[in-house]
Amino acid sequence: MGREVLANFWADEGTVSGTKTVRFPWRSRRMTVTNDSSSASMTVSLSGNSFTLKPTESLSVKYWATEVTLQGSGVAYRVWIFG
After folding, report:
1. pTM for this one?
2. For the chain, how big is the Rg over CA atoms in Å?
3. pLDDT tens-digit map of 35-50
4. Torsions phi, psi of 37, nearest 5?
5. DSSP class of residue 74?
6. Is residue 66 a contact partner of residue 28, using CB atoms and an 8 Å limit?
7. 5 strand-pairing partners
8. Quick one: how far is CA 7 from the chain centroid?
9. N or C end of the chain, less CB within 10 A?
C-alpha cells in the first residue's frame, strides 16, 4: 500500500442559507464536508455530482478541485481540505 503525505490543511465553517460556493486557496487532495445541523439536510455538489447529507452526516472524498457548492436553509457546515 502506498503512503500519502498531506502537509496542508484549510477549513471553512459557517451557515449556508441558499447556495454557497466555497473556494479553496489551493487544489485539494482530500476533502471532508460535515452537516453540523441537528435537523436540516444539505446538498453538496462536486464536479457536477450532487449528494445529500442528512443531519450530522459527513462526506469524505479524494477530490482534486478548488471549490465545492453547498445548498441548504440555515444549515451549519464544515468543509476541511487537505493537500
Report:
1. 0.88
2. 13
3. 999 999 999 999 889 9
4. -75, 150
5. E
6. yes
7. none
8. 19
9. N
Taken in order of first residue, the domains within the chain and their CATH numbers are: 9-82 (2.60.120.10)
Q: Each residue of 7-21: pLDDT tens digit? A: 789 999 999 999 999
Residue 29's nearest CA partner among 78, 65, 80, 67 is 65
In DSSP notation, 22-63 reads EE-SS--SEEEEEE--SS--EEEEETTEEEEEPTT-EEEEE-
Per-residue pLDDT tens digits for 55-70: 999 999 998 889 999 9
Residue written as grid cell 471532508: 32
Look-up: residue for cell 435537523?
Answer: 39
